[in-house]
Amino acid sequence: MPTNQELKAKAMAAIDDRADWLLDVSKTILANPEPGFYEYKTAGYVSGKLDELGIAHQDGIALTGLKGYLRGGQPGPTVAVIGELDSLRVPGHPHADAVTGAAHACGHHCQIGMMLGVAIGIMAAGVQQELAGSVALMALPAEEFIDVEYRYGLHNEGKLGFMSGKQEFIRLGAFDDVDMAMMVHTTSSSEDGKFALGGTSNGHVTKYVNFLGKAAHAGASPHMGVNALQAATVALNALNAQRETLRNENIVRLHGIMTRGGASVNSTPADVRYEGRVRGRTAEAIADASMKMDRCMRAGALAMGGKVNIVTLPGYMPVINDLGMTDIFRDNAEQLVPAGDIITHPADLNRGGSTDMGDLSQIMPVIHPYTGAATGAGHSIEYIVEDYVQGVINPAKAMAMSVIDLLARGSAKAKEVLDGHTPVMTKDQYVAFQNSRLVEELYDGSV
Ligand SMILES: [Zn+2]
Ligand SMILES: [Zn+2]
Question: What residues in the chain have per-residue pLDDT under 70?
Answer without folding.
Answer: none
